[in-house]
Amino acid sequence: MSTLSLPQERNPEGHMRFEDLGLVPSLLAAVRSEGYSLPTPIQAEAIPRALAGDDLVACAQTGTGKTAAFALPILQRLAAAERARERGTLRCLVLAPTRELALQVGESFEVYGRGTGLSVAVVHGGVSQRPQVRALAEGVDVLVATPGRLLDLLGQGLARLDSVKILVLDEVDRMLDMGFLPDVRRILGRLTRNRQTLLFSATIPEEIRRLAEQFLRDPVQVRVAPVTPASRLIDQSVHFVERPEKPDLLVRVLEGPDARRVLVFTRTKRGADRVVKLLGRSRIRAQAIHGNKSQGARGRSLEDFRRGDLRVLVATDLAARGLDVDGISHIVNYDLPHEPEMYIHRIGRTGRAETTGAALSFCDSTERPLLAAIERLTRHPLRVIGAPTPRVASGGTPARNTIPAARFRDGGRGSRPRGRRLARQR
Ligand code: AMP
Fold first, then answer.
1. How many angstroms separate the alpha carbon of residue 71 from the centre of ligand 1?
2. Vertex 171, ends 202 and 57: CA angle to 5°?
3. What is the pLDDT of residues 85-104, one digit of tens each?
4. Are residues 88 and 115 in the same domain?
5. Any ligand 1 atom below 6 A from CB of 40
């Protein structure tokens, strides 16, 4: 299980305490015994809202403390409810993309809920269904499930969802990547409308926004990405450069004396391979990790990178998910990501644990709207290096001639994440 090294860093105010969130004493004791001194921003934002019964769309990745952000208020609401569980029924369903995550989430519910007497069960594929069926027959307060196995059990008439009052969709972007959204929709179709739904996802692409609009009721949106702990220690700059010049610029960056361990992001797998090849021509050794590489090859590249035997790793966003390597000196956004949240996830991989890091974004004239979206999200203009070439107006997008230059590092703490309501359901 990953650990949060600097929870205080993740709290924009540094003042919010668990006691301020409305949690009951038994849960406060549970977080205390876990050694958590302060709530993380996602916890500070989500817990009071979830306790109030609101639907929630939370943009938060693994490592932000998101599991406790939903588990604590759910345990409290279930423990306080008048109706206890009945045989053969469920009160809360958590859908998770993988067996590992399902087990981890189940364990968190067990740990936090020790003093509540609530029951927790996990169902996932790859193992006998018999114990899972037994648990379901008895009735479960919190069921954590992967979509495939749950649908199997539903198909056999061995699970019922009609009494679920709280639903959590965890790591929905991963469910989307893994092709599980149709399964999730099928499960959602079998739930009653009278429920609370909490959706957690590292990014909210269009498909997930649509899912939220269809299945959630006037959800509060919580984003914690803009207060990534690393932001204070990362020097973020944007380099205006046209596509044909990107390879040369990358070589210049990599030849710099401080480029000790560099992670380069491209949008596509082909792009990643191309960058590796281009660097090879300048005798710079690099390896790519992406979905077309075998698990073994990816693991070896990562290990080399971690050990310091490989200085430059080129990755797609998907392949880099969960990548946890200390001492990355530079992040290079060779292509800007389509989703602004992804920018924050990318740069959060440097500047960890009080070290400094640099995040360089290469922006060609077609990528200017993506840059604008990033700056809107982070509320900080990036430091500009090089002059932007006039944008070739295309598709009616207005040209943008100047981008204010400002350093990210100074006074960057003013951007408190604010809960925001998604557009009302039509
Ligand atoms: P998660 O993002 O839910 O996967 O949590 C990442 C890690 O952070 C887990 O190991 C949790 O035990 C830990 N954690 C969760 N909340 C806090 C907190 N408020 N303070 C310190 N660690 C925490």
1. 12
2. 65
3. 888 899 999 999 988 899 99
4. yes
5. yes
